[in-house]
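Lecture 7 notes. Example A: sequence first, then its structure tokens.
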Amino acid sequence: MALLAAAARRHHLHLRLLHPRCLTTTSPSPSPPSPDPDPSIPEPSPLRAPPDEQFAAWVTRLRPGFTAPDLAAAISAEPDPDLALALFRWAALRPGFRHAPESYFAALRAASTGRRPAAAEALVHDVFAGACTPDLRLFNACLRFCCDRRSLFPLAFDMFNKMRAMPAAAGCRPDVETYTLLLSAVVRRVRRPPASMVYLHAVRSLSRQMKASGVVPDTFLLNLIIKAYARCVEVDDALKVFREMPLYGCEPNEFTYGYIVKAMFQKGWTDKGMVYFAEMREKGFVPSGGVYMIAVSALALEWRFEESRKVLLDMLDCKRKPDMITYRTLLEEMCRAGQTEQAFEALEELKGRKRGPLDQRMYSELLDGLHWISQPHKDSRAVHDRGSDDSK
């Protein structure tokens, strides 16, 4: 009985949050006392009906004995979120009426799109507590709201565990959309190792649970898993998922290849990265600017200038614009390798191209950099010698 009383108090508190007076977007401020109206001046007619009249108009539209789908349609048709949530609260107080997943889904959508986070969070807690019958679409909507807010991220996994614990006959087991929402929220937090290893464990756990439950992923979901592994430079795990894609009837796209190629170059596997890069181009996929730039820089740092130059020209032909660091890496490494004349010729070729030519500012900076690096620097050696003498 104590548990039932506590649940009743929580439900009453959530209903209070849905009251129109609690759903204002601005904090109440004391208004100065208005002067006495002049009886000779007529009051202007209001341009907008008061909220009470709008609410009464909507109540009269709902016929007696309305059902939850009728209420959901009324809530969805109302653009004012406060009025829509007031209808939801009013229906909950009607004798003999109980909200269904359709009405909860419509109210949650009205609260989330209408920027009423307190009311939306109260609805999510009601659904999690079992205020209505289980519904997969409603659970996914609650997960989407929780995944968009950092403070509700633990609640999203609590709801996910509740969905997994439900019997199969309920039809509320996690599906592709459920795993996509959770993995998208986790991958957004995966940046660079070693801090990202904490979230990588969650990615591995969700991947194993997805396989164990028999959910068939799509290309977007598999790309999320590959992206998480690639950001942590776990190339072997990313390649394992890549090779499993045909088993699920999925074909890799430009994002799949882009994540793998970029991770290979970051790990130092330049030869393997070029193999997948060539396979990507043979299939007609156009890499992103980041993949192109890391390929050009990785090849230039290994003094494979001809391959780096071809990748750079292909990048310009595909209307991808390199940054200053990519140009400087290629040209300055050529100078360090003793190919100073070839570096100046490459710079002039890049300036005279019809597709993706260099602008004057970038050309001047690159030209000054080549002149500086191609000249012998005696000062640096003198400083080194003085330091070695002092050390003796």
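Example B, a different protein, same format:
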Amino acid sequence: MPQSGATSTPTEDRTGQRSAPATTAGRAAGARTVTRVTTELAHRTRAADIFPTEWVRLSERDFRVTAHWPADHSFFGPVNDLHQDPMIIAETLRQTAMALAHAEFGAPLDTHFVMWDLGISTVPSELLLADAAEPVTIDVVCSEIRRRGRGLSSMRTIMEFHRAGRLVARGTGSMGCTSPAAYRRLRAGQPAGPGTAISPFPPVPHELVGRRRAEDVVLSRSDRPGTWLLRVDTGHPVLFARPNDHVPGMVLFEAARQAATAATGGRVFLPSDLASSFNRYTELDSPCLLETEVFDKSGPGEEARSPDREDNGEGGEVTVRVFGLQNGEPVFTVTLASAPHRRTPGPPPVRSLT
């Protein structure tokens, strides 16, 4: 999660040369080649958990990706009777960025990706279950590309998501690429693997955090209002599909969304905006405390409110900032906003890597 500190001067890849793709299955499509997304490229173990399906290269740094957001996914399923889960956008962005890094920019398949930030902006009212069968078209621009020798050191992706002829979301994320040897040095002295994780705390009621199943709850009660303990279940088939020696970013995004839901009264919280940043890895072997700060939209400014204040029922705009603390140190921050009356997605937050 943290920026692990590439200190070389950023260099842009303007050569137009490409490393051999990692693992692809392509077919001719006119003058362009269609590359399919595999489980290896998306870092998933089950095909059902892969949302981008294929892409074509439009230029040196521009790509068009096709994705599908299934209505009945076991984790990223419906949040109510009308809408799909906006968090599927963040996961699609993450998978797409890794697949392109491998196949188009030469990152080996054993690369460890370090997510530095991720942000999305969407129109939740456009994420209709009725449109779930429609393909999603994602226009991707890769920027701020850094090379280490012939390999990829870091990259930002900026994406626009269209479905059924409508712009439904924008997103961006930046990540670093670490070799297995460098990752071992980086993680030296840290517990190795899921077997070192503390036992999962008891979950809060799934209704409180907007989930339909108790096994998908990633929060546990703490001793202070407006705060929760991160509940880590390394046996979860989606959140921990692959062995990991730290808490994956997907878990932290979900924890932030569940905390936002609980902090605003347990009603359905459809994130229209998500912005995240990471200070360091969230470890498996010690508790992680989540603190929330809730803001109502009030005229030209925002007014902070108590986490236990009742919702006014008007369905207005609300923002929740979630802080993750471990051993007294900050590990991540996620800010989520719910704007139910928005008609077009705003620009996602972009933090320069340079």
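Note on Example B: The two ends are 18 Å apart (CA to CA). The longest strand covers residues 136-148.
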